[in-house]
Design brief:
- The complex is a heterodimer of chains A (189) and B (531).
- Chain A has helices at 18-41, 45-61, 72-91, 100-113, 117-128, 133-144, 149-156, 160-188.
- By secondary structure, chain A is mostly helical.
- Chain A is globular and about 55 Å long.
- By secondary structure, chain B is of the alpha+beta class.
- In chain B, the strands form five sheets. In chain B, strands 1, 2, 3, 4, 5, 6, 7, 8, 9 and 10 form a ten-stranded mixed beta sheet that branches. A five-stranded antiparallel beta sheet of chain B has the order 14-17-25-19-20.
- Classes of the chains: A mainly alpha (189), B alpha+beta (531).
- Chains A and B meet through helix 1, helix 2, helix 3, helix 4 and helix 5 of A and helix 1, helix 2, helix 3, helix 4 and helix 5 of B.
Chain lengths: 189, 531
């Protein structure tokens, strides 16, 4: 059994210390992956951001317990998984949630699919170049501020649903492009 | 379609709704069901979320998407006193995290898992595999029959057809010792290689099939893209393109010859069938009780149906008396007391896989004219042995299976279920009976679930009509304790001669009387029309 630790006595809790620097270095490298992991379990951005923040803090606090023989992400995902569960337990039943069994499964599989992310992100960068100007403008507008697609609709004089439909098609097209490009790039190396 | 994502078409709209933030609670629940039921759906889900996050990251490029500043602020804030509640909360959280961290990495690292099965029967190492289970690297898996779909961590899919023996080494390599397999590689996994006793095949994208006989002689066919093939021992590889086939066989020495391409010999896809089903489990001892969803591949499209969307039935006829046979009693299976007067409900009004009206009568030859279904039975014109049901809404004959039937099968009885005839309620030109000889899964298939224990009721006399089924007195009721599985089979109405799109009101089923075991229906339903 683990013994509760007095966190205020945690020796790593000193901004500017070597331990904190080492932590920030690892964390900076992997934070997008950790967020992607949390988001897959809790696909609602404000919730995912909340859990991500809690996870970050816990990771930093417990940094000394990271066994450097194992990947930082494996450790971080374990911590994040617990934070997700904890969040769901405390957030009440009125929210949209996956059940425990599915969460376990997604958590297990997400750990491995995150590995393909980098190549796919690079491919996405290339695929975005294949969009025409109006498609690109829609993606940029919608994604720069996700909450404001309604404003975007008003500004461009289109129905919100029309914009969503166009966005859906663009994502579908990009996904196909990423699939093919990720293939081509791997076989070239 | 590129990528070969075998996902239900409805998932796309749900994913769009999810990332657009427009998903309703019902849709969210539905997404959860689809994700729970299919590994393909989950892979798509991850890729789609990554795309979504990637777009946001790109749109925000120039600004730091997730600045470290927030963390540094939080670190600085730690110097200030915090509320006690939070401190305790964090302490508990952190302590639990330690436990979790210690536990999770101890899971064995798997390179591939059993993604899907079509009546796959593993013997030896794989005999206890369930859907989704990881395969152990370096072990020999022996697939006696059926098809098994393996999914590697990098997305490579391999369909193996029994009898076959294979070994998975890592996510880029496997050995086919014997048997047939089709390999489909996903973007990024080019170079995936399959060794056989005499050859090595390297997938250059995207699909090839392989057949290894007991001598190790190997035939390779390239279905899509290209593959490099070489005799083992470092011979120079030959590149085969789509539509090419090469055979490595012994004729004094090992020779490579071009052979005719014939993709029909290979397990390129998983068949249309009941892929899997989900249930509620009884207590902690387990055992399936209520059916909650079924996954059916129909016309190469995978559909997941929650039980609520299935078309229920009404039992309209039952006769278990068989001329010239004794000791064949009407029986039902229940979870509790005998529901006399409402016995039909065991098969037509619940979702339970351990209740049903079993042991209908039968006939060695299937019907070729309308069954007689009087109630009460007219002695001058005896009823047809068997059972009939009417769908609560007509079922449309669409691609692939349209009706599902679950049979309970003790694991010591015929492995692939009790054969039965299925017939139209009303014969018309072009319509005929069909005999289902095998269920879509066997008692040892990974997709067949063990059902919770039940009570077997037998009656003092056999029933000749539906009315008698409800009235006959109980003779014995005992708990049935032999491990039993729920086997499912999908029935395509086309096999009865119905035209595509035809609406079917009901069906008649009879045991084939091939042995003393009778078909034991515990759940029957129609599938909703395809979109």
């Amino acid at each position: 059994m683990a013994t509760p630790v007095d966190l205020d006595e945690d020796p790593t809790a000193d901004p500017g210390s070597a331990a904190t620097d080492a932590f920030l270095k690892e964390f900076a490298k992997h934070q997008e992956r950790i967020f992607a992991y949390v988001y897959a379990l809790l696909p609602h951005r404000p919730d995912a951001e909340d859990v991500f923040q809690r996870t970050s803090l816990t990771l930093w606090r417990k940094f000394a317990t990271w066994d450097r023989q194992s990947p930082f992400t494996a450790w971080a995902f374990g911590v994040a998984f617990y934070q997700v569960k904890n969040f769901i337990r405390s957030a009440g039943r009125d929210r949209l949630r996956f059940d425990d069994q599915l969460l376990d499964r997604l958590a297990d599989e997400r750990g491995t699919t995150v590995e393909r992310r980098d190549a796919r992100l690079a491919a996405l960068g290339e695929c975005l170049k294949t969009l025409d100007d109006s498609e690109r403008a829609l993606v940029d507008g919608a994604y720069r501020d996700e909450e404001n697609i309604k404003e975007l609709a008003t500004r461009t004089g289109r129905a919100v649903q029309t914009l969503y439909n166009r966005l859906n098609l663009i994502r579908r097209k990009l996904l196909t492009c990423v699939d093919m490009r990720a293939a081509a790039e791997r076989s070239a190396t | 379609m590129s990528g070969g994502r075998e996902v239900p078409s409805e998932i796309w709209a749900l994913l769009d709704g999810l990332v657009n933030g427009t998903l309703t609670p019902d849709q969210h629940a539905r997404l959860g069901e689809l994700l729970a039921a299919s590994a393909e759906a989950r892979t798509l889900y991850f890729d789609y979320l990554d795309l979504h996050l990637g777009l946001r990251q790109t749109a925000l490029a120039g600004q730091t998407a997730r600045p470290l500043a927030h963390l540094q602020e939080r670190l600085a804030a730690r110097r200030r006193p915090r509320r006690l509640g939070i401190a305790v909360g964090f302490a508990v959280a952190a302590a639990a995290a330690i436990v979790l961290v210690a536990r999770r990495p101890s899971k064995p690292e798997s390179v591939a898992s059993l993604a899907s099965s079509a009546a796959a029967r593993f013997v030896g190492v794989g005999s206890s595999l369930k859907l989704g289970d990881p395969l152990t690297s370096g072990r020999e898996y022996a697939l006696r029959e059926g098809r098994a779909e393996l999914r590697f961590k990098n997305g490579v899919e391999v369909i193996v057809e029994g009898p076959a023996a294979f070994v998975v080494h890592d996510q880029m390599r496997m050995t086919m010792k014997m048997g047939k397999a089709a390999v489909h590689i996903t973007p990024g996994a080019e170079g995936f290689l399959v060794d056989t006793p005499v050859a090595r095949v390297v997938d250059r994208g995207t699909r090839f099939a392989i057949d290894v006989n007991e001598l190790g002689e190997t035939e390779v066919q390239v279905v899509e893209g290209a593959a490099e093939v070489s005799a083992s021992g470092g011979a120079a590889p030959v590149e085969l393109k789509r539509g090419a086939a090469q055979r490595y066989a012994f004729d004094g020495t090992l020779n490579a010859t071009a052979v005719a391409y014939d993709e029909s010999r290979f397990p390129l896809v998983m068949p249309d069938r009941v892929v899997s089903y989900t249930v509620t489990q009884r207590g902690d001892t387990g055992g399936a009780e209520d059916l909650t969803s079924i996954t059916v591949r129909r016309g190469s499209q995978v559909n997941i149906y929650p039980v609520e969307r299935l078309i229920g039935i009404e039992l309209i006829h039952f006769k278990s008396v068989i001329a010239g046979r004794r000791n064949h009693f009407t029986s039902t299976v229940t979870g509790g007391a005998d529901p006399r007067g409402e016995r039909h409900a065991l098969i037509d009004s619940d979702r339970n896989l351990n209740t049903g009206v079993i042991n209908p009568g039968g006939s060695p030859t299937p019907l070729d004219s309308d069954p007689v279904m009087s109630d009460p039975e007219d002695p001058a014109r005896p009823n047809t042995p068997g059972m009939a049901f009417r769908f609560r809404k007509a079922v449309r004959n669409d691609a692939g299976p349209d009706v599902v039937l679950f049979d309970f099968q003790p694991i010591i009885q015929p492995e692939y279920g009790d054969p039965f005839h299925v017939s139209p309620l009303h014969f018309a030109p072009g319509l005929h009976s069909h005999t289902v000889r095998r269920f879509d899964m066997g008692v040892f298939s990974p997709e067949a679930l063990t059902i919770a224990g039940f009570r077997l009721n037998t009656f003092a006399v056999s029933a000749s009509s539906l009315g008698e089924l409800e009235r006959v007195p109980l003779n014995t009721a005992n708990d049935f304790t032999v491990t039993s599985k729920a086997l499912a089979v999908g029935i395509d109405l086309s096999v009865l001669g119905y035209a595509p799109g035809a609406l079917v009101e009901g069906l008649f089923i009879q045991d084939v009387l091939d042995n003393t075991n009778m078909v034991d229906p515990v759940f029957i339903a129609g599938l909703p029309p395809l979109d």
